[in-house]
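Progress against Task 2.4 (sequence-to-structure conversion) is shown through the following example record, which the project officer requested during the mid-term review.
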Amino acid sequence: MADPSKTLPKFTVDRAQPSTASVLRTVEWVDTDASGHQHNSAVIRWVEAAEAKLFRELELPEYFPSAPRVQQVVNFTSKLWFGQQVTATATVQRIGRTSLTLAFEVVGHAHEQRPETVAAHGTIVVAHVPAGAASARPWPDAVRAAVSPAEGGPR
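Structure tokens generated for the chain above:
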């Protein structure tokens, strides 16, 4: 008989809380444009790092090769500067039959007389398209069981 302690996931899902992960980054020179503040693409890279952390913690490595983006909405609300620390947070907002919506927020920490502020927020929608499929398919039961959406929609 298998030892049950070896079959339990290392990360437990708290159904009372939505599935969320955050990463701390520093705005590097490569992340800036000629004016010295963040390039728009840096925000999405940081959010994708939070998304990757989330799905690693949920022990769902199969998510990435089968979850292409179908929509990205980014609202830029403040500039981020070279050397500034930022926290990017990704939260599963909703899981549908074949799609999943992540809400995200990127917060710039206080830096050089500038207060902490939300620099960007938005959503990313992915579809479940398994390898070899030409279109979206329903999410596997393992994904539905592991993910806890912020909205009380169907699983």
